Amino acid sequence: MAEFAVNKLSKNRMPKVVVIGGGTGVSVLLNKLKTFDLDITAIIAVADDGGSSGKLRQITQSIPPGDIRNVICSLSTWPDKYIDILQYRFKEGNDILSGHPIGNLLISGLAEMEGNYTAAIEILSEMMDIQGRVLPSSEVPLTLCANFSDGTEIEGESIITSQGKNIERVHIKATNQNDVVTPGPGVCEAIADADVIVFGPGSLFTSILPNLLIEEVGQAVLKSEARKIYICNIMTQKGETESFTDADHVRALHEHLGQKFIDTVFVNNEKIPEEYVNLPSQDENLLQVKHDFKGLLEQVPSVISDRFLKLNEKGIYHDGEKIGKEINNYAFSHQRGIRMNF
C-alpha cells in the first residue's frame, strides 16, 4: 500500500497560483496579480532565440534572459524609475552592447557568477523585492521546432513564424545535443502544489507550449489537482494562429499533451475597433480571434467571457486588472480543503 499524508490547508493561507508562459502578455497579467493576496509562481519559457536574448544565449551557451527579466520587473515592488534602469536598452551604434537591456546583461552576469540561472534569478528577485517566485521552465537551452501542414520542419523560434505556413505541431529539443531536457529546479513541485494554474496570455506555439513540451512539466500539469485556466489570445498571430478560433487554441493545447486538461477558458467578447486591426506597431497581429462557444464547450467544462480588452496608442492588450480579479476570485473559490500526497 502506498504511503500518503493528508495535509489540511489553512483557510487563512494564500491560494497558490502558477502562471505558465512567456512574453508581454504574462508580464502584464503578473503586474496586476501581485496586488492580490496570492502566492504566485511564474514558470517562464526558455526557447527564445531572437534579439538580445538570442545573442546572449549564443555567447553564454545558456537560457535566454529576456522574458525572465520582464517577469521579474513586472512582479517587483520597486518604483518605476528603478525598474526602468533594468529595462533600459542600449541604442544602436555600439557593436557590442547595441540592443541589449541592462537587465539581460545583469542576469547573464549573475548566472555566470553563481553557476546556474535559478540562483541568479533568486538573487535578482530578492534584490528587486518581487511579489512571488520566477522559475525558468528549464535550465537547459532549448530549441523550438515546428512541423507545418506541407510536411516541412523548421528549427528556431525566431524564424518559425516568418515562414507563412500553417503550424501543425511543435516540439522541443536540447540546443546542445549532449544535454538532456529536464525541468528547472522547483518547477514540477510548484505545479503539483498549485491551487490554480494559468496558461497565458501569450503566443500559443512559441510561449506557452514550449513549457508544456518538457515531458516532466507536461506530466506534472496533467497530474496536478489544480484548476487549470487558459487565457485565450484576443488577436490571431501571423505565422502562428492565423484563422484560429478560441476553440482551436484550446484544441491545440489538448492535442499536444494527448488529453483534455483545461478546466476554464477566459475569452474576450468585446469587438475590436477597426482602427486597431493590423496596426503597424503590432506586426504580429492580424484579426480578432473568432469566438466558437460550441467548440469550446466540447473542449472544456466552463467558459468565462467578458470585456477583457484594453486599448492604448500602442495597440491591443488584455485588461490585466480585470483578468487578475477573475483569477483571484477563481483561486479563492476553488481553494482545496484537503490535499493528498501519494
Automatic annotation (TrEMBL):
Keywords: Cytoplasm. CDD domains: YvcK_like. It comes from the Bacteria. GO terms for cellular component: cytoplasm. GO terms for molecular function: LPPG:FO 2-phospho-L-lactate transferase activity. The keyword Transcription regulation does not apply. It holds the Pfam family CofD. One of its GO terms (biological process) is regulation of cell shape. It is found in: Cytoplasm. Its main location: cytoplasm. Belongs to the gluconeogenesis factor family. Required for morphogenesis under gluconeogenic growth conditions. This is Putative gluconeogenesis factor.
